[in-house]
Specification:
heterodimer; A: about 130 residues; alpha/beta; five-stranded parallel sheet; B: about 650 residues; alpha+beta; five-stranded antiparallel sheet
């Protein structure tokens, strides 16, 4: 399963890449919604992890775009501003899971497992 | 309301003045009329006495003339001798000189020696007969029948004959005419030595003799006129018949031949009383006096009457009425003016108070209420001022409270913005720290010291994470914006939101909404956050494939203050439960039981804060291994109340 990570903060992008690649996923990172849209045009992703608060186009708008595509991509929303409202609006916007920042590698992986069941990824190393 | 009070006040004044005015009008007019009438009756009684005096004076003068004539010795001698020629010459002379209608001489044996009329000896004048019998002079009224009249003088019987005229109100009477005559007569017995030689008599016939009644009228009433008519009048009656009068009939002539009213006749002629009252005379009303005339034998044979036109006094009454009406009208005008003035005096301050009240209700808490009044109005003004004072005080306190609340919420908002900024800025690098610390800890080649140090870093970072989260939760407290909300609908919406996270874990929601749940005012969005929090916590705690029971009820909560009804939302999971030692701490802002990988719920302290600001509370029952049961309770009788 290819995973798209979208966050304007490079620390978060690299953290996610580090954890997910250690779990055996193919990871592609994008620094903005525009880059993310470009990336999804070329390659198919099994999952997107999207930061809600980004400059220019925010995560909610990006989620709508991803959901509107020919193959809707499941989304995990994450936010450094984890309030009830943010979570409610994320879930309302179509996110399958809301992940408040900061998170541990275990939290990220269990969120991922909740959305993408282990049997289907096929590349998970143990 | 005000106009009606003024109107009612004026109406009350008006009613009183009208009542008093009308009463005084009726009573005053009546009293004055009575007084005038009494005065008139007193006067008419005196007038009657004067008339009586004039009437009797005429008989006395007749007696006097006869007495003087009888003093002549030659006449007496001639009578004794029966010398008719001398007697006739002398008596005719006397009769002409004293204006007598008849005169004559009776001899001592009662036979007629001479009379001015015919030589008829068959009838004897009753006055002469009375004097002869009594042997003393006689004067007074006598009634002479037709034969006597015919004998006493030429034309007397004809003069005395009076046809009866129909008269309203008179007593019924038979016959068509009166042929008897009433006369004033005097008789003097004449003597020579001790021997009575005869009686000298004479008199005047009253029938159609206007002399006396006109003298009475002219002497007593002095030609006083009223409306072109002489006010006073006098009448001599024979029985109930007018034989001499100056009361005019309908055609303006003397009303001879008309009769007195049955009422007066009964009182005066039949019982001998005196009548002084209003009476209907011929054809109009008079203030009258009637008294009986008795003849020389003491029989009531006629009536003497004087009267004054009632119209004169009725006119006094008629002139009194406008005066009283004027007084009443003046009273009414005064009542209206007084009513207006009094109501203005009373109502002006009240109206100022009303205007002040209007200004108060439009927000001016220091309106002018006008000059201070006395009495109840003054009390009202003072009470109003006191009320304004406490209103101002309350408004000031309210303003202060609002100000401090505004400051507080501004402070909170700025703290919130600051915290949000800090949280967002810190959380990203914190993600890096947490991720890479944990990744380092996974390396198998770490020595014990390095592993221990890294674990310290990881724990410290977790602490920073929970502190930032608590800070953010604390800063997120915002003002409630309540609206009528159906709790069941709200829960359905929220379950839909939680469907994604629940679905990925294969967790089922079972919702059992209470029927007829009252609608209650609440902040929809914040309450949804609370329910969503509890649901997410439940999802986190429930193993995959489990289920979460959600329901609503109307529940009663018993506290020290008593029982209160409320709406309850129940969320029961089949998860791990909460350890008893943590049950009391789960609502602390900086408390979390979340171990890595165990879940990502948000703070219960925020949820509890929101529910408490709705007047409610959150209860939790939990047994480790058997799941947790959260109850959100919102009172129904709260200020927000059912909407």
């Amino acid at each position: 399963v290819r995973i798209l990570v979208v966050d304007d903060d490079p620390v978060v992008r690299s953290s996610c890449r580090r954890v997910l690649e250690a779990e055996g996923f193919a990871v592609m990172c994008a620094a903005s919604a525009a880059d993310a849209v470009d990336a999804t045009l070329d390659q198919g992703f099994g999952l997107a992890i999207v930061d809600i608060k980004m400059p220019e186009v925010d995560g909610l708008a990006l989620m709508r775009m991803l959901k509107a595509g020919r193959r809707p991509v499941p989304v995990i929303a994450m936010s450094g501003y984890p309030t009830a409202e943010t979570r409610a609006s994320s879930l309302r916007g179509g996110a399958s899971f809301f992940l408040p920042k900061p998170f541990t590698p275990e939290e990220l992986v269990s969120a991922l497992r909740a959305v993408v069941p282990a049997e289907t990824d096929g590349v998970r190393e143990e | 309301v005000i106009i009606s009070i003024r109107t009612r006040l004026i109406a009350a004044f008006l009613g009183v003045s009208l009542l008093v005015g009308c009463l005084s009008l009726v009573a005053g007019v009546q009293l004055i009329y009575r007084a005038v009438l009494n005065e008139a009756q007193t006067r008419i009684t005196q007038d009657l006495n004067a008339a009586r005096e004039i009437y009797e004076e005429r008989t006395r003068s007749t007696l006097l003339g006869l007495t003087i004539a009888g003093e002549e010795a030659s006449l007496r001698a001639a009578i004794q001798r029966g010398d008719a020629s001398l007697v006739s010459a002398r008596v005719s002379e006397v009769a002409a000189a004293t204006g007598l209608d008849f005169a004559g001489v009776l001899k001592a044996d009662g036979s007629v020696l001479y009379r001015t009329g015919s030589a008829d000896r068959a009838t004897v004048n009753p006055a002469a007969a009375f004097a002869l019998q009594a042997r003393e002079p006689v004067e007074g009224t006598v009634v002479l029948d037709r034969q006597t009249l015919a004998a006493e003088g030429p034309g007397l019987a004809e003069r005395a004959r009076i046809p009866l005229l129909p008269t309203p109100r008179a007593a019924p009477r038979n016959g068509t005419e009166e042929d008897a005559g009433m006369a004033l007569a005097a008789a003097v017995p004449l003597a020579l030595g001790d021997t009575t030689v005869g009686v000298l008599y004479g008199g005047i016939l009253l029938n159609r003799n206007q002399d006396i009644v006109d003298r009475i009228r002219d002497t007593v009433f002095r030609h006083e006129t009223w409306g072109g008519q002489l006010v006073g009048s006098a009448t001599i009656f024979l029985g109930d018949l007018r034989i001499a009068t100056n009361v005019p009939s309908g055609s303006g002539e003397r009303a001879i031949g008309t009769r007195v009213s049955a009422e007066v006749k009964g009182r005066v002629l039949d019982t001998g009383g005196v009548w002084t009252d209003r009476a209907f005379v011929v054809n109009t009303w008079y203030v009258t006096a009637y008294e009986p005339i008795t003849d020389i034998s003491g029989n009531r044979v006629g009536i003497l009457y004087v009267g004054v036109l009632d119209a004169k006094y009725a006119d006094i009454r008629a002139r009194t009425v406008p005066v009283f009406v004027l007084i009443t009208l003046a009273g009414i005008a005064a009542a209206i003016a007084l009513g207006g003035l009094v109501s203005w005096r009373i109502l002006a301050p009240v109206q100022r108070l009303v205007a002040a009240s209007r200004r108060v209700s439009s927000g001016d808490l220091d309106p002018p209420i006008g000059p201070a009044s006395r009495g109840e109005i003054g009390l009202l003004q003072r009470t109003f001022q006191e009320m304004l004072g406490s209103l101002r005080e309350r408004a000031r306190l309210h303003e202060q409270e609002k100000e401090s609340e505004r400051e507080k919420s501004e402070r909170q908002a700025s703290v919130g913005r600051l915290a949000a900024g800090i949280a967002h800025e810190i959380n990203n690098p914190l993600t890096g720290v947490l991720t890479f610390t944990h990744m380092l800890l996974k390396r198998p080649d770490l020595d014990a010291d390095a592993r221990s140090d890294l674990q310290t870093i990881a724990r410290s970072t977790e602490r920073v994470r929970s502190i930032v989260k608590g800070l953010l939760d604390f800063a997120r407290q915002t003002r409630l914006e309540p609206e009528p909300t159906d709790m069941n609908d709200l829960i359905r919406d929220t379950l839909a939101l939680a469907q994604n996270p629940a679905g990925v874990k294969g967790i089922l929601f079972c919702f059992d909404p209470a029927e007829g749940l009252p609608v209650r005012r609440m902040d929809r969005s914040q309450m949804q956050s609370v329910i969503l929090n509890v649901l997410i916590n439940a999802i986190d705690a429930t193993p995959p494939g489990g289920h979460i029971d959600v329901s609503t009820t109307v529940g009663t909560m018993t506290t020290a203050a008593g029982s209160r009804r409320g709406i309850e939302a129940h969320v029961a999971d089949t998860g791990c439960g909460i350890a008893p030692e943590n049950l009391e701490r789960i609502f602390d802002p900086f408390f979390t039981t979340k171990e890595p990988g165990e879940g990502t719920g948000l703070g219960l302290s925020v949820s509890l804060g929101i529910v408490e600001r709705h007047g409610g509370t959150i209860r939790v029952h939990s047994r480790p291994g058997h799941g947790s049961h959260f109850v959100i309770w919102l009172p129904l009788d709260d200020g927000g109340g059912a909407a």
